[in-house]
Amino acid sequence: MKITQVICQILRIESVEEKTAGSQDSLLIRIRTDEGLEGIGEVDASPEVGKAIIDAPFSHLIACGLRDLLVGENPLEHQRLWDKLYRRTMYYGRRAAVIAVMGGIDVALWDLKGKFYNQPIHRLLGGKQHERIKAYGSILFGRDGQETADIGRRWVEAGYQAVKFGWEPMGQSEALDIELVRGARAGMGAEAELLIDAGCVWDARTALRRAERFKDFNIGWLEEPLNQDDVDGYVWLRDRSPVPIAAGEGECGRGAFRPWIDRHALDVYQIDVLRNGFTESAYIGQRVLENGGRLCNHGYKSGISVAACLHWLSTIPGAFLFEDCVEDSPLRHNLTQERMQAVNGWISAPDAPGLGVTINEDFVKRYLVAESGW
């Protein structure tokens, strides 16, 4: 079996808002073979940047576009292909966007492998440790404490036992930060698990002060309080914080995760399978467990993202929470024919071959912005 086409499709909903939400556009990857099989993946980065990385023509032996490196190859050889893509992009890759695109390609290759062997990806990864995982509803803060309380109440009433609030408007003032968390707890009640994602807004000492104040609201973790590059700050903060510290969603590949793991910088490591692929996520996850950390997924895009993260997280011993984006976006809910959403606060990995989801072609036609592939 050989790869014959690598197709990129940029999708964007009609009304993109100025907010931190990856469920508004996407780069859909479709890898086709001479045996008629198609594997699907998705890239969690700027779609146009990702498309350029795939479309780029040959420059020299360590500065290649990804499509040229894949066409003609056997899609079942995922590890060899990962190594090939990594080496042949060394002059402009190794971290961030290129690894994120490689992650989306890797997801498509594993989807193809599952379809070829007629097995779900979680079985190819070694088998489920969990038939279902408790999901937390992941959503942005409201404009103030009252709106945040209303949002929390809505998702607890919908069946979620845990809800995470994130990003703007947190970080404008201490008073507003505390108002937002107080509102979240008031809306959710005393029993539901409350998670807070600060959105990289503070220095280490301010983050420690907020952690001490947020402890009174019994939060499950404080996520990304510092700049994503501040490993030293996270090590300092984690050693002093009265609440668990979580981060990792922005990291792409084992090289990016290595200092975090080696220095025990976090309590909870959040791996986005779209930004790492199954190949790297399996390796990174094992390293985290060996060093005594806990693992959770990051995912804020479509049903492809949900399925990919579920296949991986379901194989992780000790997996305890699944991020379930509850944004009301057509991309989040309608790109796949299957609705990938928790039911009564619990969610399970698909058991159909590959990712176990199928593309809604009518949705693609409606929201397609640009396409390339040969």
Protein described:
The chain has 374 residues and is α/β, with parallel strands linked by helices. The chain contains 14 helices and 13 strands. Strands 4, 5, 6, 7, 8, 9, 10, 11 and 12 form a 9-stranded mixed beta sheet that branches. The longest helix has 22 residues, at 96-117. 49% of the residues are buried.
Q: How much of the sequence is in beta strands? A: 15-25%
Taken together, the total number of domains comes to 2
The helix count comes to 14
Order of helices and strands: EEEHHHHHEHEHEHEHEHEHEHEHEHE
List the quaternary state of the chains: single chain
Would you report the number of β strands? 13
Shape: globular
Radius of gyration: 20 Å
By helix and strand content, what is the structural category?
A: alpha/beta
Spans with pLDDT under 50 lasting ≥5 residues? none
Fourth-tier CATH superfamily name of the largest domain: Enolase-like C-terminal domain
CATH class of the largest domain: Alpha Beta
Residue-averaged pLDDT: 97
**Can you tell me the CATH architecture of the largest domain?**
Alpha-Beta Barrel
Q: What is the end-to-end distance?
A: 17 Å
State the helicity in percent bands. 25-40%
What is the CATH fold-level name of the largest domain?
Answer: TIM Barrel
The major beta sheet can be summarized as: 9 strands, mixed
